Amino acid sequence: MSIFTPTNQIRLTNVAVVRIKKGGKRFEIACYKNKVMNWRAGAEKDLDEVLQTNSVFVNVSKGQVAKKDDLTKAFGTDDQTEICKQILAKGELQVSDKERQSQLETMFRDIATIVVEKCVNPETKRPYTVNLIERAMKDIHYSVKANKSTKQQALEVIRQLKESMEIQRAHMRLRLVLPAKEAKRLKEKLKPLLQVVESEDFDEELEMVCLVDPGCFREIDELIRCETKGKGTLEVLSLKDVEEGDEKF
After folding, report:
1. For the whole model, what pTM was predicted?
2. Is the dihedral of CA 216, 42, 16, 5 positive or negative?
3. For 121, which DSSP code?
4. pLDDT digit string (tens) for 126-154?
5. What pLDDT score was predicted for residue 183?
6. Is the separation of the CB atoms in 126 and 243 below 8 Å?
7. Region for residue 172 given its phi and psi (left: phi exceeds 0; alpha: psi -120 to 50; beta: otherwise)
8. Residue 57's CB: how many other CB atoms inside 10 A?
9. In the predicted model, is pLDDT for residue 95 greater than 50?
10. In 3D, which of 33, 83, 32 has the Cα closest to residue 58?
11. Pairwise CA distance, residues 179 & 203, whole Å
């Protein structure tokens, strides 16, 4: 006896489902476990390593594939690979309560670790411990978002922690070399972006070593390139300016 299998059904096993609701309809994609978070964190770049199949479903567990018309209405395209990327980025990963709790706890610690790597106590210029940052995150009732990368959330945590404790982004140390002709004018424009000027040497050109907030780096880089028409240079001497201590973390 032959068993009839509808053509719009695909059976998958050991699958992690990512779901999104769009245009009043539910769409799902079938992924490999653990790969979704790797993709969102930027650690995995190969889509084929994340997806079990490029098909978009209305119900993965029943194997029901979404209709082309519904996909076009909801996503503005019927390109399944592109739609899979959208669902991966914005959809909700369906996991058991136990798995979700474990995943959120891991992300919580990862976020705290990133904060420690990026920040210092402005008074001592030393990094905080991971445990201290975790306690501070609990004090501000920070809630981990499973569908956002840990790096994005770490930046959000830093902003929130600034309201309740002494914390700042560790400075970058830069060497700026500016042509003599533009040096004075450009120095005035750069001044608001520089935290500390450690040394200044003016001969045929102006050479400065300074500390800056990492968030200002791109603006400084663009300013020097545009204002000097490529004649000025910017060199990163160190990514983090922190006091070396015997603090373990």
Report:
1. 0.55
2. positive
3. B
4. 889 999 999 999 999 999 998 788 989 99
5. 86
6. yes
7. beta
8. 23
9. yes
10. 83
11. 10
